[in-house]
Amino acid sequence: MSHQLPIDMSLPREERLNSLREPLRALLDAETLGWSNLANMASALYAATSWHWIGFYLVDEHHDNLVLGPFQGPVACTRLFKGKGVCAAAWQTAQTQVVPDVHAFPGHVACSSLSLSEVVIPIRNGAGRVAAVLDIDSSALNDFGPGEVRALEAMIEDVERVWPSWTWGA
Questions:
Q1: SS3 9
Q2: Residue ranges of domains in the chain
Q3: How many Cα atoms sit within 13 Å of 131 on the Cβ side?
Q4: Which of 105 and 110 is assigned the larger pLDDT?
Q5: The domain 13-165: what is its CATH number?
Q6: Distance set, CA 139 to CA 68, 147, 168 (Å)
Q7: Which of 33, 77, 119, 128 has the least CB density, counted as fewest CB within 10 Å?
Q8: Residues 42-84: pLDDT tens digits?
Q9: Under DSSP, is residue 51 helix (H, G, I), strand (E, B) or coil?
């Protein structure tokens, strides 16, 4: 099934993000394969914004780290470890991390030298544990406004609602 997402690029970024919520919700409800849903979400967010990198890291419980999932942007770090970086902080605290200047964040993991600011939002599974994080990097300092962060968190609430029904095999 082909979907055309309504992205009016003349709108401010916060409004573009808010306008994506309904079509993304419909996509999430129509597909049960988690990988496909995360891939479509990363693609839609990337198309609607000027951000440098958008993707997901999933908790690998067997190795106690985060492993790269679907993303849009340049090649990324494959594994991220506890105690190091913004993604690990979001995973460990189960709280959104907004970092205006990644160079000021202790232990920041630099997957791209072009990344200057970052937001990472934890995604909880049906049991309430963090199962993944949405990671967004910008090539501009302080590039994530409060309204944009709220819009992204609302999208993640939609993901959390359907996460327990997803499968992860092909």
A1: coil
A2: 13-165
A3: 17
A4: 105
A5: 3.30.450.40
A6: 20, 19, 32
A7: 128
A8: 999 999 998 999 999 999 999 999 999 999 999 999 999 998 9
A9: coil
